[in-house]
Hints:
Largest sheet: none
Strand content: under 5%
Order of helices and strands: HHHHHH
Helix content: over 70%
Amino acid sequence: MQIALLVLVLVAGLVMLPFGLPGLWVMAGAVLLDAAVVPSHVVSLRLGIVLTVVAGLAEVVEIALAGRFARRYGGSRRAGWGAMAGSIIGAFAGVPVPIVGSMIGAFAGAFIGALVAELSQRSQLAPAARVATGALLGRIAAAAMKIGVGCAVLAWVVLSIVLRPS
């Protein structure tokens, strides 16, 4: 029963990721909670700590990807920072909209942040829109990356359960 509950929480965390919700943190928290609190823990505390670090790294990469893509599409450093800041602000601003608000907010925020930052240096809309599109594509790549990390975390935990010594 305990294993089924842990796996159910891990799958729920994975399902949260496409909606921009903190699914990786739910997954890492479930593993840490199982390892630290439950007497007959299924997974090790070391695995919980490693998964927490992985979740943190995925968050950093997620934020940086929008800026990197903005710069790859011809944007300035300012556009890269604008995309990252807009992404964070948009994610928080979208929270009141149920389920998909933070994801839509982060996508729109990356686009708008890069656009505004780039327009503050250039007055031409077309190149700035190209940079903002790059920032949006970066956010999409970041979401895909986090889903991939979530799948890897789920597989990692399930394999550690299946392969653990009896």
